Amino acid sequence: MSRLEVPLTGTTLWYTGELVLRAYLDLLLKDAASNWYQETFRVDSGTDVTSLSAARAKALGLPLPQRGLTVPVTTTTGTTPVVVRPGFLRLRVVGMAPVEHVIPCHFLGDPDAPPPGTMAATFPRNLLGLTGVVDKLRIITDGTPFPPHAPHGNLIVERI
Known about the structure:
Layout: E1 3-7, E2 9-12, E3 19-22, E4 24-30, E5 36-43, E6 50-53, H1 54-60, E7 69-75, E8 78-93, E9 101-108, E10 127-128, E11 137-142, E12 154-159
Parallel strand pairs: 5-10, 6-9
Antiparallel strand pairs: 1-12, 2-3, 4-5, 4-8, 7-8, 8-9, 11-12
């Protein structure tokens, strides 16, 4: 079994002073020419399907469905229409044995959106969801502090 531990990231909300913990995982994504590109995904157990910006996918040369569907997407801030292109990602987890996984992914937005670095291109975030992942990887959040390396605990990833 391959195993990886990644420190949880802690951020203080400026308006309430609360500590918010997040887990990030670096993945290698395979393009149509079999090249690998590293991207960081936020691990989100509340996300049903992994998502990646269609513009980012196009920039990396990932296989991208031509047509999309406009669907209502509900988040904590409300419901908004979003163009979704259902497809798949071929990936490996950085720091683990080089096993290739294929998972469903929703490519979001316009693939011809503004270039990376502009405000419009920074959203949506790369989110690693549950579908197609939990049968391949065991993902555990362990809040046991390990100062100074992981003062808020670790994200533990194991290959099943």
